[in-house]
Amino acid sequence: MKRSIRTMGAGILLALLAGAAYASDAGQATDLQSYMLAQNEAPASNAARNVASAAPAKQAEFKEPIFSLNKAHEYLGLSTIVAAALTTFTAPGEGCEQNCPPPSQMPPRQTNGTHANLARATVALAAASIATGIAAHWDDIHLDNGISDPDNLHALLGLAGTALMAAAVNKSAKSTVPVSHAGQAELGAALMVVGIKLVW
Fold first, then answer.
1. What is the pTM assigned to this prediction?
2. How far from 186 is each of 7, 109, 136, CA to CA, in Å?
3. Under 8 Å CB-to-CB from 113, ≥6 apart: which residues?
4. Range of the domain at 187
């Protein structure tokens, strides 16, 4: 129980830091917009007017390819969240509620059912998302910017979420009796959702 409270506390702290980073990033964008508006209102020189009246050069519009390392990272991250939701919805019931046999006489746990397979697939998707994210965005991670940088926080939340989900799957898979692991896995998925939302 103490470990669950610590885990939830760490998750809440990371979520609060993510919110703070998002808010500071939004404030910087507003300052930049104000600066650009002020620059546009300044009186233009004759040379600037002449250049502005000339036919504008057509700029090529950037279109990100459908398949790239960045897109693979994005698709894997979103697939992880969908798989986590499906895993949650396929969770088996609690079993018997009254007149339950002792744990030694209970039937063996099902470790190859839909819920267990989806849980393993979710962790595999999360790990693949992390691998492609590191490969695609290695240059975006700057440790000197600190934890409030949205890219750093995205990476940290993704890693923490994956670790929590993997620990929950491992905890349940190695137990011969039902163990409480849903809260830990759901917190991991929630951290990944917050991480995705930061950079979306």
1. 0.64
2. 12, 21, 27
3. 92
4. 68-91+110-200
CA distance 160 to 192: 8
> What is the total count of domains within the chain?
1
**Nearest Cα to Cα of residue 149 among 17, 16, 2:** 17
How many helical (H) and strand (E) elements, i.e. helices and strands, does the chain have?
A: 6, 0
Do 168 and 184 form a contact (C-beta atoms < 8 A)? yes
Q: What is the largest CA-CA distance in the chain?
A: 92
- For the cut 60, the answer to whether the pLDDT of residue 83 exceeds it is yes
User: pLDDT per residue over 115-174, tens digit each?
Assistant: 989 999 999 999 999 999 999 888 877 778 788 888 889 999 999 999 999 999 998 888
Say if 136 falls within a structural domain: yes
Answer yes or no: is 20 within a domain.
no
27-64 b/e (C-beta count within 10 Å ≥ 16 → b): eeeeeeeeeeeeeeeeeeeeeeeeeeeeeeeeeeeeee
Examine residue 37 and state whether it is found in any structural domain, yes or no.
no
The answer to whether residue 5 sits within a structural domain is no
